[in-house]
Amino acid sequence: MADDNKNIKYDVVHKLVKNFLMGNLKYELSKDEVNELSLDNQEIFMQLTIHSSLYKKYPLKFEFCRLFFKKLIKYLEQYSEVHDDMYEFICSLMKIKNEENKFSYRHYIIANNLIDIITIKETNNMVINGTTGMKTWEAAIMLSDWILCNKELFYNRRILELGSGVGFTGITVGKFCMPKSITLTDCHSDVLDLLVENIAINFSDLQKTATSQYHSFKNDQKVIDVTKLDWHCPEDINDNYYPDIVIGADIVYDPSILLPLCNVLNKFFNRNPQLQVYIASIIRNEETFNQFLKVLDNINVAVDKVIPTECVFLNWNQEMKRCILKIRKNV
Ligand SMILES: C[S@@+](CC[C@H](N)C(=O)[O-])C[C@H]1O[C@@H](n2cnc3c(N)ncnc32)[C@H](O)[C@@H]1O
Q1: What is the DSSP string of 238-257?
Q2: Most exposed of 44, 169, 291, 318 (fewest Cβ within 10 Å)?
Q3: Is 134 near ligand 1, meaning CB less than 6 Å away?
Q4: Is residue 157 within 8 Å of residue 245, measured between CB atoms?
């Protein structure tokens, strides 16, 4: 991808590549932009997308690709020529009848450059196999953006992620913040399997070891672990483990887990009173969120609310009510 990147001459190609890899259909092109899409530039676009090694290895959902190319061809047909390969590609997709696999890949581009990409295998479904953990939620992208703006907090620290889901936030920390170690956790076995797959995709250079409960990816500089941690079963927590920082995205949504979640945090505060906790939420239900604040009141912690105001390294939906809670032990 890095070499391919040198060939991008025009912003519009970059814009299209970015929207395609990130699975975004809501792009618009002006007449001037379409005019920049000469056959040569269309060729560059296809080299960077459907003919790239990234796409070949980790394809996007076929239905998305069909709609993306249909829209692009419609733009091109108005003011310009259409590269034959585009028609060929869309025809090849039409032959694929039912997309059986509920999972596909999304490529999250960090800081608008096509070099730093996180690839996540995930679904579009909000709930699948009885869990919400099979897709990347908006709070995960918002928290990752905030983390990238505050990398120094995570440098050389032991990080624990609760309710990691497909792993976007933990992978961001592991890839860009140089933590001492990061442990990604969840309660659902299918989510944990997918999480392990996503770590393997994004850290293909790390050595993997596994036991029945624990997957570890390591080299001299990085340690990334994946393990089960169900907030209802605090005994899942290894007695010798003392994180410096706990993170979690979109984990405050179900009233029945607020107390168990708080108990897990308390357990880690008792082990390390210097612990820092960052929990990101998209506030869909104010009552549940306030209930969590009340539960936190009982464990003698100070809670600060941060409301991120702008997208810096990643795009997330700024229209949603949102918050990052910074939680510390009261001294
Ligand atoms: C809405 S998803 C968020 C996933 C991910 N953090 C993100 O933002 O993309 C909530 C996650 O919390 C996990 N979860 C729910 N209850 C849990 C529990 N009792 N213990 C551990 N994880 C739990 C789910 O499996 C799911 O992965």
Answers
A1: -TT---SEEEEES----GGG
A2: 318
A3: no
A4: yes
Q: Residue ranges of the alpha helices (H) in 206-327?
A: 258-271, 286-297
Q: How far is the CA of 186 from the centre of ligand 1 (A)?
A: 6
Cβ atoms of 101 and 61 within 8 Å: the answer is no
Top mutation candidate among 108, 121, 123, 132 for ligand 1, by most atoms within 8 Å of CB: 132
Name 122's bridge partners. 104
Is any ligand 1 atom within 6 A of the Cβ of residue 249?
A: yes
Q: Which amino acid is at 243?
A: P
73/62 Cα distance (integer angstroms): 16
How many angstroms is it from 80 CA to the middle of ligand 1?
Answer: 47
Taking the C-alpha atoms of residue 48 and residue 184, their distance in angstroms, rounded to an integer, is: 31
User: With contact defined as beta carbons under 8 Å apart, do 80 and 71 qualify?
Assistant: no
Q: What is the predicted pLDDT for the residue at 276?
A: 98
Q: Determine if ligand 1 sits within 6 Å of the CB of residue 179.
A: no
Q: Measured in angstroms, how far is the CA atom of residue 55 from the centroid of ligand 1?
A: 28
Please tell me the distance from the alpha carbon of residue 30 to that of residue 20, in angstroms, as a whole number.
17
Q: Is the pLDDT of residue 6 over 90?
A: no
pLDDT at 99: 61
The answer to whether residue 213 scores a pLDDT higher than 90 is no
Please, what is the Cα angle at 232 between 230 and 234, to 5 degrees?
75
In ligand 1, which atom is closest to the CA atom of 137?
9
The distance in angstroms from the start CA to the end CA of the chain is 49
Asked if residue 262 has its Cβ within 6 Å of ligand 1, the reply is no
Whether the per-residue pLDDT at 87 is higher than 50: the answer is yes
Closest residue CA from atom 12 of ligand 1: 163
Distance CA 31, CA 179 (A): 46
In the prediction, which pLDDT does 100 show?
60
Asked whether 160 lines ligand 1 (CB < 6 A), one says no
